[in-house]
Amino acid sequence: MSKKNIFFALLFFFAAVGNVFSQEEGVLAEDNVQQNLLISTFNIEGLKRTKRHYMDKLLSGFLQKPASDETLKAIETKLQAENTGDSFAAGLFLMDMNTFGLHCSTILGGLYSTNGIMAAGVFQKPPVRKGEIGFAFAGNVSKNKREFANSRNYKVFEYESFYAGGRGKILLKPSDLTQASFGVGYSFFNPIDSPQVQRRNQWSVDASWGISTTSWNGFFLNVNSFNVGGELLFSDVSEQVFAQTVSVSGEVQRALFDRLRLVTGARGFFSNNLLKTNYVGRGNSAVTLLPTYFMTDQICGLFTGFEAAVVKAKFGVLSIYGLYEVAVARELNNSIYACSGPEMGLRVYLAKLAFPAFSMGASYNINENRFQYSFSGGASF
Fold first, then answer.
1. How far apart are CA 202 and CA 262, in angstroms?
2. For 222-246, what is each residue's pLDDT tens digit?
């Protein structure tokens, strides 16, 4: 069933009295449903690619069951667990990691997906030695559709927009183990036929500081790192002229044996008076328990577990991992949501590269009885 479909399921019962339902963005809302009412049939609307007989088979086990909170919860869980879709993305980025022979980095490229198109470019001259100063410039232009979902994977609203932005940064290396940056940025945002959001111009000032140590044991990269950053945002939207954000992250990857390492970390994003067009996704928690399109202005997460190298060959290393994750976030209705659950999967590290060139995994949100799947290929930056 496509995520882009709006899926409405109206439940009809033998008794009509007290049967009051409302529907909004694919959400089933219940009002005074009597426990003695039984589900007799399903009227399904909005399907584009999924066959009706498949949905009938999927939901047949709920026929003749009481229309209770527990049954409705089970139906919602069943539908969300399907989680199949027809979205895709493809792109090409050209990277020169030694531009001009001076260890500068240049990245140019673009992405096309079912939700839109984006082009971006980055040029960076990092400081190499203690006391040096570097700089970086980045810009991107996009036209895409953005979806906002809550913790139960219900789409709350969506909008299409045109975006253009740029940022410049000064990069510092105060010591061999620390790095810092100061930056300024500007972005223009124009919604397309979207009454939920407003057109805006936005200016920003940001700063960050971090410390890290790394070492290589032949199988994995040992890492100890901590980073903190803050940003001040100024917009011409009268309701939210001034906003502030703080982001923190920390990670420890420590080899216990040659082929086994401990992996643990935490990440958080906190803001005040933030425009919804600046909300962040689950990636800012470093966990995968939340839905792909979950959006928020405050989120934190932590994970801990182990990763083992099962194959080492000329191409690199194939590993398997198992983690336990916890996430806490503010919902779009301002309530606080917390969840936890395990994640497991595999990764492929190419020879001479420390980041995974390929990874796939699955996590289980215990609170929602829902699986989340993740897949990535290539490098992210």
1. 41
2. 899 999 999 999 999 987 899 999 9
**DSSP for 324-373?**
EEEEEEE-TTS-EEEEEEEEEEEEEEETT--SEEEEEEEEEETTTTEEEE
Tokens coding 143: 């036209």
DSSP H helix total and E strand total for the chain: 2, 19
Per-residue DSSP letters for 196-261? TS--EEEEEEEEEEEEEEEEE-SS-EEEEEEEEEEEEEEES-GGGSEEEEEEEEEEEEEEEETTEE
272 and 316 Cβ atoms separated by less than 8 Å: no
Contact, 127 vs 173, CB < 8 A?
yes
Q: How far apart are CA 50 and CA 239, in angstroms?
A: 42
The helix or strand, by DSSP H or E, that contains position 55, with its residue range, turns out to be helix 52-59
CA 70 to mean position of chain CA atoms:
29
Whether residue 226 contacts residue 247, with contact meaning beta carbons closer than 8 Å, is answered with no
pLDDT band of residue 11 (cuts 50, 70, 90) is very low
Phi-psi region of 258 (alpha: psi -120 to 50; beta: other; left: phi over 0): alpha
Backbone angles phi, psi at 304, to 5 degrees: -155, 145
Alpha carbon distance 196, 234 (integer Å): 20
- What's the pTM? 0.75
CA dist., res. 369 & res. 76, Å (int): 10
Residue 69 sits at φ, ψ, to 5 deg, of: -55, -40
According to the per-residue pLDDT averaged within each range, which of 14-18, 292-296, 337-341 is highest? 337-341
Residue range 193-217, pLDDT digits in tens: 888 888 999 999 999 999 999 888 8
> Among residues 155, 177, 206, 139, which one has the least CA distance to residue 6?
155
Q: How far apart are CA 358 and CA 59, in angstroms?
A: 35
